[in-house]
Design brief:
Rossmann fold, 2 domains, Methionyl-tRNA formyltransferase, alpha/beta, 6-stranded antiparallel β-sheet, methionyl-tRNA formyltransferase activity, Methionyl-tRNA Fmet Formyltransferase, Chain A, domain 2, Formyl_transferase-like_C_sf, about 25% strand, single chain
């Protein structure tokens, strides 16, 4: 079976490596154009491109696949390349470009997607972040037959894993990427032998995982400590939950709910010590957040004890969003 692969970040690269290691023929890889990154804003290839080139697989990086979009000539070139590249199926994982119906219809067996949620929950761009933010007890991977709708296609395989109370988006991403790599091999092998049935997604339980914005990461201490702690986990490693104190923006990387309430107003530091961490009043004193790992501008992520040695905080100071 010949498999064209479309994907961009590490999540997708894990799946591509699994496909290559399983011995499937990958005649072409699609990925996003190189982007500037780092302090020097040098152009960087995606994780998928780097892996493909390391295995001498041809790479295409169209900026659009929509024939009726802003770049119809580029899209047409990509369509022609797909048609002229012998293949049976396209596997898509976190590609970042919309695949119009004109693309989905090219492969003989269509296009299948590795999606990081238990569909129909968390359709959309940020399923891992949103599952943690919402306090879901579990998530998983769905291998889905792609159609025009946003993550609405029939499900081919679905497998759940628990969300640990300490999981952040980074750790859960790695677990799901590994699971996705295992499941796409299973799906391809079953499709090869025509032994995989599709299940229509239920209409109940649909929700959308909107793209994460940097503005969301500013902590609102009027929320409960439980909600804030989930947001800190959800926005780790990106875009990093943060709050300002005396004009300095501090990133919060790890926190937990501290039992009990306080008479202090939202955002007020109750205690800042090596033993207790940084205790902050939330929800007008109805709950308390214990921050265990922080980062100042230009500094490293540090446990609260080490952070406070170089950036002292004291009771009564107030964090602002």
């Amino acid at each position: 079976m010949k498999v064209i692969f479309a994907g961009t970040p590490e999540f997708a690269a894990t799946a591509l490596k699994a496909i290559i290691d399983a011995g499937f023929d990958v005649p072409l890889v699609l990925t996003q154009p190189d982007r500037p990154a780092g302090r020097g804003m040098q152009m960087h290839a995606s994780a998928v491109k780097q892996l493909a080139l390391a295995h001498q697989i041809p790479v295409a990086q169209p900026i659009s696949l929509r024939l009726d979009g802003k770049y119809p000539e580029i899209a047409q070139e990509a369509h022609d390349l797909l048609r002229n590249t012998p293949h049976d199926i396209m596997v898509v994982a976190a590609y970042g470009l919309i695949l119009p119906l004109s693309c989905l219809n090219i492969p003989r067996l269509g296009c299948i997607n590795i999606h990081g949620s238990l569909l129909p929950r968390w359709r959309g761009a940020a399923p891992i972040h949103r599952a943690i933010e919402a306090g879901d007890a579990e998530t998983g991977i769905t291998i889905m037959q792609m159609e025009e709708g946003l993550d609405t296609g029939p499900m081919l395989l679905k497998r759940a894993i628990p969300i640990d109370s300490q999981d952040c988006t980074g750790s859960l991403h790695d677990k799901l990427a590994a699971l996705g790599g295992e499941m796409i091999i299973e799906a391809l092998q079953k499709l090869k032998s025509s032994s995989l049935d599709a299940t229509v997604q239920p209409e109940q339980g649909v929700c959308y995982a909107a793209k994460i914005s940097k503005e969301e990461a500013a902590i609102n201490f009027n929320l409960s400590a439980e909600i804030i702690a989930r947001k800190i986990r959800a926005f780790n490693p990106f875009p990093a939950a943060h709050a300002s104190i005396d004009g300095t923006t501090i990133k919060f990387w790890r926190a937990e709910v501290n039992h009990g309430g306080t008479s202090a107003t939202s955002g007020t530091i109750i205690e800042a010590s090596g033993q207790q961490g940084v205790l902050i009043a939330c929800d007008n004193g109805q709950s308390v957040l214990r921050v265990l790992e922080l980062q100042k501008p230009g500094g490293k992520r540090l446990p609260a004890q080490d952070f406070l040695q170089g950036f002292p905080l004291k009771a009564g100071q107030v964090f602002q969003p």
